[in-house]
């Protein structure tokens, strides 16, 4: 397995490429829109899969995310798929919902995803600050929730990352992992969207290069309107074909 | 176009490189495993419907699958693909189709750039 220091460096390199600093939380969904020739697909993939990435012969790539998972988990999954895109020589990756499971490359992608979304230095910094307020000198469940909210990752991803952190009480790891935190997060004043999947109508969508390609082909008269619509419908963009309910005046 | 034997061989190569066993393919297509075995040996012909489903499962264009001798593709799967359920395999087909469409559109767009 590629060592953690290398994975950390790769995560930092990618942050740099995206024009992000090494410490702040990132909006990964909007950042990937800058990747050339990438299409991003949201699709509810059931209980086993978290995502897929496919690289084509002509340089196009597709990342698909299981949109039935919580938003925090989807962000983690997208970061995981980016590892396959940049560092996996295989053309296709099919990924499991279980974090840290399966083949070596999957484990590497999980560690990379964690470093990308939760920069090491900033995590240590914040964990030190938060644990100072507790008598035990360790992180409480509420602190773990605060950290997860700050970095925008699922509770599970946060706890797994904290496993080796000196401010984490190792006896509490299992307990924290098993605790549902949505209600607790709301009581702390956070928005609980991170723990929920996207709304049903947003669970099927394709964004990015694919839509642009179809549009260009239509403009160039290389495909018929029928073919254009077929391409969009295959990619769950009926909203672009038929329009969306409630389209109209929105003050932005 | 390839004969039954050629198509069967293509299907075997793609199946094995993705580490599916014959049983999981049979389950996905809703047929008996013996039929998959016969198709791969070229003893039986495959229906157009089944061919389309397998092409999208393997992320190949059906036209390529029946006309050209394919090479094995490597993929990175967190699972043994044989453990994937038919529902998971359907998901893979759907996403593969989007990826194939994107490649198809790229081909057309490259064409106009060349012409100019």
Please give the count of helices of chain B. Answer: 6
Structural class of chain A: alpha+beta
Q: Categorize the overall geometry of chain B.
A: globular
Cα end-to-end separation of chain B: 33 Å
> Which protein chains make the most extensive interface, counting residues with beta carbons within 8 Å of the other chain's beta carbons?
A-B, 47 and 32 residues
The largest sheet of chain A, given as strand count, sense and whether it forms a barrel, is: 5 strands, mixed
For the termini of chain A, the CA-CA separation is: 48 Å
Low-pLDDT segments of chain A: none
- Under CATH, the topology of chain B can be stated as 434 Repressor (Amino-terminal Domain)
CATH architecture of chain B: Orthogonal Bundle
Q: What is the average per-residue confidence, as pLDDT of chain A, rounded to a whole number?
A: 92
- Taken in chain order, the helices and strands of chain B follow as HHHHHEH
Arithmetic mean pLDDT of chain B = 89
Provide the number of structural domains of chain B.
1
Q: How many whole angstroms does the radius of gyration of chain B measure?
A: 15 Å
Structure description:
In chain A, helix 6 crosses helix 7 and helix 10 runs antiparallel to helix 11. With 252 residues, chain A is of the alpha+beta class. Chain A has 12 helices and 5 strands. Chain B is mainly α and 116 residues long. Chain B has a single domain, classed as 434 Repressor (Amino-terminal Domain). Chains A and B meet through strand 1, strand 2, strand 3, strand 4 and helix 10 of A and strand 1 and helix 6 of B. Strand 4 of chain A pairs parallel with strand 1 of chain B.
What's the layout of helices and strands?
The complex is a heterodimer of chains A (252) and B (116).
Chain A: H1 4-17, H2 28-31, E1 38-43, E2 49-55, E3 61-66, H3 71-87, E4 92-96, H4 104-117, H5 120-132, H6 141-151, H7 155-162, H8 173-178, H9 182-187, E5 205-208, H10 209-219, H11 225-234, H12 238-242
Parallel strand pairs in A: 1-3
Antiparallel strand pairs in A: 1-5, 2-3, 2-4
Helix pairs in contact in A: 1-4, 3-4, 6-7, 10-11
Chain B: H1 4-17, H2 22-29, H3 33-41, H4 48-58, H5 62-67, E1 75-77, H6 86-115
Helix pairs in contact in B: 1-3, 2-3, 2-6, 4-6
């Amino acid at each position: 397995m590629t060592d953690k220091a290398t994975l950390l460096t790769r995560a930092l390199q990618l942050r740099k490429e995206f024009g992000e600093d090494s410490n702040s939380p990132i909006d990964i969904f909007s950042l990937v829109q800058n990747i050339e020739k990438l299409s991003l697909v949201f699709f509810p993939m059931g209980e086993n899969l978290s995502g897929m990435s496919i690289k084509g012969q002509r340089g196009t790539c597709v990342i698909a995310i299981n949109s039935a998972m919580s938003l925090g988990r989807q962000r983690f999954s997208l970061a995981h798929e980016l590892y396959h895109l940049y560092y996996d020589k295989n053309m296709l990756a099919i990924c499991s919902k279980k974090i840290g499971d399966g083949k070596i490359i999957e484990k590497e992608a999980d560690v990379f995803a964690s470093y990308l979304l939760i920069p090491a230095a900033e995590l240590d910094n914040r964990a030190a600050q938060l644990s100072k307020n507790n008598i035990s000198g360790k992180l409480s469940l509420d602190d773990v929730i605060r950290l997860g909210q700050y970095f925008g990752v699922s509770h599970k991803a946060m706890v797994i990352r904290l496993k080796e952190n000196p401010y984490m009480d190792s006896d509490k790891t299992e307990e924290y992992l098993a605790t549902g935190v949505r209600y607790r997060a709301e009581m702390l004043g956070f928005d609980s969207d991170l723990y929920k999947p996207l709304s049903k109508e947003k669970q099927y969508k394709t964004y990015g290069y694919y839509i642009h390609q179809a549009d260009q082909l239509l403009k160039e008269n290389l495909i018929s309107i029928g073919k254009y619509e077929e391409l969009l419908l295959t990619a769950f963009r009926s909203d672009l074909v038929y329009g969306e309910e409630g389209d109209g005046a929105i003050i932005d | 176009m390839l004969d039954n034997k050629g198509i069967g061989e293509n299907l075997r190569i793609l199946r094995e490189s993705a580490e599916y066993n014959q049983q999981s393919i049979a389950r996905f297509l809703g047929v008996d495993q013996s039929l998959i075995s016969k198709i791969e040996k070229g003893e039986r012909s495959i229906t157009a419907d089944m061919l389309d489903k397998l092409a999208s499962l393997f992320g190949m264009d059906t036209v390529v699958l029946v006309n050209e001798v394919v090479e094995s593709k490597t993929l990175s799967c967190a699972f043994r693909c044989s453990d994937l359920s038919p529902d998971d395999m359907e998901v893979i087909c759907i996403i593969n189709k989007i990826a194939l469409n994107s490649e198809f559109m790229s081909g057309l767009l490259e064409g106009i750039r060349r012409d100019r």
